[in-house]
Request: fold
Amino acid sequence: MDFNLTNDQLEIKDLAMKFAKNEMMPKASEFDEKATMPLDILRKAWELGLVNTCIPAEYGGNGFTAIDSMIITEALAYGCMGMNTSIMANDLALLPIVIGGNDEQKKRFLTPFTQDYKIAAFCLTEPGNGSDAGGIKTLIKEDGDDVVINGNKMWITNAGYADLFVLYGTTDPALKHKGITAVVIEKGTPGIEVGKKEDKMGHRCSDTRAVTFNNVRVPKKNILGGLNQGWKIAMKTLDHSRPMVASSAVGGAQCAFDHAVKYAKERVQFNVPIANHQAIQFMIADMAMKIEASRLLVHKAAWLLDNNLPNTQLASYSKAFAADSCMQIATDAVQIYGGYGYSKEYPVEKIMRDAKLIQLYEGTSQIQRLVIAKEIFTR
Ligand code: CAA
Reply:
């Protein structure tokens, strides 16, 4: 067993960390306040090769392993969890094409993302179906060489800027997960109606909207894996993307931790730095343990992916543990800062708001436990 990163991985980590500290961190609070997507920063990240890490080399990508992409994600989330959400949502939307697309679809849809900075959106959740993804209602009806799509999607990251939507619908809601179909829809296709930007607690610079699909006509050649084959693609996508979300939790938690340690050494109370007080030391020790344990779970989940081994259980371990840990660590960082931590002038306030979303998206912490229990009892 080797816990060392390779030289290439150390280089990628260094590049992503420098980008996070020099380009993302200085602007994180401004974009949080403005609640607008930092397109220039995102494009710069793309120019450095830090976006769309899931695209295989044969379609123009950098040929990153899953572990490489976790290293990048952790570093970018250290810079700003909200900006990283916009970046990570591209992978979430492109992964179904990597996993379920044929060669022609991969060339047609993935390669343009390696030639210019483009934005993608993953459309699974609906107003009435979030955790119960198998119950989605968006209808996909065959019509000659096309399919026609009607339905409403909700909480769609990147929706306002998306060049491409990967949508999940059903050919028949009675079939539940066995009717789910995944289809790629390009920007400009008539009938796509993007809603207003949601005013969120955290990740405020990431763009989240409802999207309505009204008689959207798409050629059958845009269906991934065939009609009614979308569910397995969605689940396999989440097996890959959940460790990425977990990795972003590690990055956010590490950032909160670093701030808290620095502050604890500087802040003097009762004539000594508060770092000398055991109450603070215990909090710092718990934070450090949880970060390391989260990172190890992420890397194990990614290692399984890189070795083509089932990783559903580990993906959910990493997502639930890292998200819950990140929330706790960010809350404790605010606690260590005391009243100052509650002020927007200090960075831990934003990290605490950002941490909350990690426990919600791509399967809540409760859904991860449900997946883990199902794996233990039934599979
Ligand atoms: N890989 C392959 N197959 C899988 C699988 C996996 N990881 N997980 C389940 N399956 C298969 C099962 O084997 C089963 O197959 P059979 O029909 O052959 O038996 C089938 O899928 C149904 O499985 P379940 O009985 O477990 O399905 P369920 O409906 O009871 O529960 C769920 C499924 C795990 C709860 C699922 O609905 C789920 O993950 N929900 C959460 C949804 C989610 O994460 N949404 C995130 C949206 S993305 C996001 O947040 C967007 C953003 O922009 C930030």
About this structure: Residues 89, 122, 124-125, 131-134, 156-157, 177, 231-232, 235-236, 238-239, 312, 361-363, 367, 370-371, 374 surround acetoacetyl-coenzyme A (CB under 6 Å).
